[in-house]
Amino acid sequence: MEYSKIVAVSGLPGLFELVSSKSDGAIVRSLDDKSTRFVANRVHNFSHLESIEIYTVRENVNLVEVFQAMQASGEKLPDDKDAAAVKKYFEKVFPDMDFDRVYASDMKKMVKWYDGLNKNKVEIKLSEPEETEEESEEETEMAEARETEEKPKKTAAKKTAKKTAAKKEEAEPKAKKTAKKK
User: Is 76 in the same domain as 118?
Assistant: First the structure.
């Protein structure tokens, strides 16, 4: 299971693996009970964990950085129902967090999510877009194809321009002859 496919769905507890997306929603699998269901996007919003940022006293950081700090600390996770214990935990583990703007409910969610990710053995890291040699070759081939498509259009335009010029030249002597007769 990849971290990049994990989403939070508004109105539903826990985290979900994005199995498939459709124009009107998505098919998701719960990390808790492994049940699969369709979730309509007109009722629910989806948030990829990769896109979630946390307020800090400096610049916002990605949720991955908080999870990695939690992993590196080795501290035992607090009970997610005790807001004071959760806040103390984050003061030790991630002291740069802006505790005025990050609510206790958000910190509780982070503890629950981190626990769920660990139970499902999800590797917590951001996905990096990798450009393989095959992709770059395909892009080159597509660019060459576009160039060859443009060339016939240019030659067709030149031919049309030449025909128009030839017709004008033919029309000019006829116009001069009719002007001389009058």
Answer: yes
Q: CA angle, 125 as apex, 124 and 126 as ends, to 5°? A: 140
Distances (CA, A) of 105 to 50, 124, 125, 127, 129: 19, 22, 24, 27, 32
Do 21 and 67 share a structural domain? Answer: no
pLDDT at 115: 92
**Tally of structural domains, the chain:** 2
Domain ranges, residue 37: 1-51
Q: What is the pTM of this model?
A: 0.67
Q: Summarize pLDDT for 4-26 with one digit per residue, the tens.
A: 899 999 999 999 999 999 899 99
